[in-house]
Amino acid sequence: MRHMTRAVFAFIVVACVTLDAYAILHLQEALGLEPCPMCILSRYSFIAVALVSLVAAIHGPRGTALQVYGALVAFFALVGIGISARHSWLQHHPPKIETCGADLDFMLSNMPFSRAFPKIFGGTGSCTVVEWSFLGLSIPEWAGVWFAIFLAIGLWALVRGRKEKGPGWRAA
Known about the structure:
The chain is an all-alpha fold. 71% of the residues lie in helices and 2% in strands. It has six helices and two strands; from the N terminus they run H-H-H-H-H-E-E-H.
């Protein structure tokens, strides 16, 4: 069982790293799509899911520890689903006034660098524009699909951890 849980958590790590790498290297760098603030938040959620899963894959948890890791993965996946749902809603129902933030040029020309620098990491693209889609789903919709998969795995780990007996925090 321990090897299977390690493999499942390792799969999550590989999937999250691949998704973030695709977003950064292909969508952002190769295609020139600027991420919006909600895209950046989704990336952070993928990173959080990946970090928890990496620790779980190394640990090989059982019992209570498996439940804890499952709960954390499920929590960060739910956060990602919320971000993806809001982002998708904005794309399908754009507000009359853009609310995702100012672009990079505006920030650097209208505020001191010390205030603009942290905002750079917030993304500069528009949250309401669909610039890429695959099989009819936009970027946040695909992110939502992946977060739903991670949520299901996190819930599986919660249930599986309850069924197992014995201390879960034992060294691997």
